[in-house]
């Protein structure tokens, strides 16, 4: 009976090692090195399984295949094959009988087989690993072992089949526990990401909020010159009074969508508050910024042309104020204040236009 405790102990050891690896990965920023660490840790786990050989009556050497299952399933074929190098080398150092056959059967074959079930979303944690994949892999390995043994021995005894069923149960139980732990850690990671996103996202427009913008803009301004655009929806209060607050909220979402789709790819737009938006741009050439701002004004005006002033309905346009940093590491709040002052001038001079901040003299455009 004690011989059956050995695979149980090995399986428990592997589950514990997987738990430790998950926690270490969660506490340390090792994602950028994961393509190297995953094969290394998988190979070491496989070697640990080789340190306690199973009784020959069970028909298996050890549980070295289990780490390969997880490597192939989660990381794909390249990582799984790299993971076989250390245990394969250790097998040859031990001078195991039929070493090449054992490496092929218990390391390379599991790596290849489990890779067939790989999905790239399993690696980044955005998708849970289905438990059924683990059951399918273990079952296929069980069938392969039975067929291989029957081919070599020219027979298949009931005792051997029963031992293999016991090992199949051990592999399945361990694999299910490991997959469950990985999925649970991924769920916690996704929840954390969601909470972080909610903390930095405006709930109505789904644009970044001011908190997020200040962090991004402050970092950008330490490195280079930038420009800031303050953007305000013209006649928003009239629109709210005419259509109601629900339609006003929808207008904010629509304007946010227009801005999101018409800003430059490297730029960053956020909701400033109320009916105002703020845009961080890497463009600092006034001529290019004029074209840029003109495009934004035109895009919004064209988008809402059907609601422009029939029966005295409020027109939907935007006004923009622009400020360009004169030196890197300028103060963000000061640049925002300048852009806000230029926005006031755009409003004062007729709306649906953009204005550059230029000290005492404002350079009105459009």
From TrEMBL:
Coiled coil: none annotated. Keywords: Membrane, Transmembrane, Transmembrane helix. This is GGDEF domain-containing protein. PANTHER family: DIGUANYLATE CYCLASE DGCM-RELATED, REGULATORY COMPONENTS OF SENSORY TRANSDUCTION SYSTEM. The chain crosses the membrane at residues 36-54, 75-93, 129-152, 164-183. The keyword Coiled coil does not apply. The keyword Aminoacyl-tRNA synthetase does not apply. GO terms for cellular component: plasma membrane. Residues 224-359 form the GGDEF domain. It comes from Paenibacillus sp. SYP-B3998.
